[in-house]
Design goal:
The protein is built from eleven helices and 16 strands. The chain is α+β, with helices and mostly antiparallel strands and 390 residues long. It has four domains: 86 residues, Rossmann fold, CATH 3.40.50; 60 residues, Dna Ligase, domain 1 (2-Layer Sandwich); 137 residues, ATP-grasp fold, B domain (D-amino Acid Aminotransferase, Chain A, domain 1, 2-Layer Sandwich), CATH 3.30.470.20; 72 residues, no CATH class. The radius of gyration is 21 Å and the shape is globular. The termini are far apart.
């Protein structure tokens, strides 16, 4: 199929492995307004076009008679990919599905219509809407951004107005959500679908910046496989299938963030609440998955985009894989310690920091100074590396 063309929407660092995977069988095209983006020189063709310019990319898709189109970790790119895929009858979800899983205000309506547990919320469009909020703490977030941008916990009325306007400035559609703070452990569920048949590829334990009064939700590290009981796993799987069907997911990867609360009454039961769903691959997940189960998530994504039937996914993990983001000097020092004492554990790294003077406050994943993956034996305790106790 090397004479067939394949489009990748977005040229950032997290798309690089997708480009290389597609390049094995296709003539690849990358689209990004940033002419210095990571993937510019990886693809066969680079187009300095904004990933939001759906019509211009559609015309090129028609010109090159593309076999498929995909994106790995960008919400805006997913909208464009699904818009073009629907127009050309490719292996993508509908444009409506992409909108419903990108705009959180639309997402909430699907949750409500299908009786899916989620955080209670208010839609905030103007300053007068803030009068609805009387209980704190509460979470403020832009309706249509990802990677934790603009997501903060507000503890009082004094900071509410300021945080509202900050989130509104970040939002493309100028809609802000105010949500209750959910209880429970946080996970993300990584799935793959083809022709409406869904499979769970992995469940990820997500770790956030700690502290009772931490005012943001910065993701600091992710662990696969998640340490859940068989009962918890079964409960999660059943709920996820319902969610995917509710959003009419047909093709591609999905990344669903959840809170799982264990309730002990006469018998143990669980409450699962959905934080949000994205119908694209979660960032960093392909490497985590490959280094636990040897499953090639990117190849599954490409096969789905070509409307192929998918094999049964292998979810049996041979070891743990942990990705750690570098935000602070302490994070960087721990990375250097591992690099010195246990270099064999580091299976991949992308370090952007050049000296200790560059550290400053981080508010989203986009502020990361780098990241690295650790392969951890099933005989070891991942907590030693999660909590930097080694």
């Amino acid at each position: 199929m090397k004479n067939k063309h394949f489009f990748i929407i977005g040229g950032g660092d997290l798309q690089a492995d997708l480009v290389l995977s597609a390049k094995k069988d296709f003539i690849t095209h990358v689209f990004d307004y940033n002419e210095s983006c990571s993937c510019k020189n990886l693809a066969d063709y680079f187009h300095p076009i904004s990933i939001a310019d759906k019509e211009k990319i559609l015309q090129l898709a028609i010109k090159f008679n593309i076999a498929g189109i995909a994106t790995a970790a960008t919400e805006l790119g997913n909208l464009t990919a699904c818009y073009i895929g629907e127009k050309l009858n490719l292996g993508t979800n509908s444009y409506e599905c992409a909108k419903n899983t990108t705009d959180k205000s639309l997402m909430k309506k699907v949750f409500e219509k299908n009786n899916i547990n989620h955080a209670k919320y208010f839609i905030l469009k103007d300053e007068k809407d803030l009068e609805q909020i009387t209980q704190f703490p509460i979470i403020i977030k832009p309706s249509d951004r990802s990677a934790g941008r603009g997501v903060v916990k507000v503890f009082d009325k004094e900071n509410l107005k300021k945080r509202f306007y900050e989130a509104k400035d970040l939002s493309y559609n100028k809609i802000v959500l105010a949500e209750e703070v959910l209880k429970g452990r946080q996970f993300s569920v990584e799935t793959i679908s083809s022709h409406g048949k869904h499979q769970i590829v992995a469940i990820t334990e997500e770790y956030l910046r700690e502290g009772e009064f931490a005012d943001d939700f910065l993701e600091t590290q992710h662990l696969i496989p998640a340490r859940v009981t068989n009962c918890e796993k079964k409960f999660i799987e059943n709920e996820i299938m319902h969610i995917l069907d509710a959003f009419k997911v047909k093709f591609g990867a999905s990344h669903i963030e959840i809170k799982l609360e264990k309730i002990i009454e006469k018998r143990i039961k669980y409450k699962l609440s959905v934080i949000e769903i994205a119908t694209r691959m979660g960032g960093l997940r392909d490497i985590l998955i490959y280094n636990t189960s040897k499953e090639n998530y990117l190849q599954l994504l490409i096969q789905s985009s070509l409307k192929q039937e998918l094999k049964k996914v292998n979810t049996k993990a041979e070891n743990f894989c942990l990705v750690k983001m570098i935000f602070t000097k302490e994070d960087y020092e721990f990375y250097k310690k591992i690099k010195t004492l246990k270099p064999q554990m580091i299976i991949k790294e992308r370090i952007f920091i050049k000296n200790d003077e560059e550290f400053s406050y981080s508010s989203s994943l986009m502020d990361s100074k780098g990241y690295y993956y650790l392969k951890i034996s099933k005989d070891e305790n991942p907590e030693n590396y999660i909590n930097q106790l080694f």
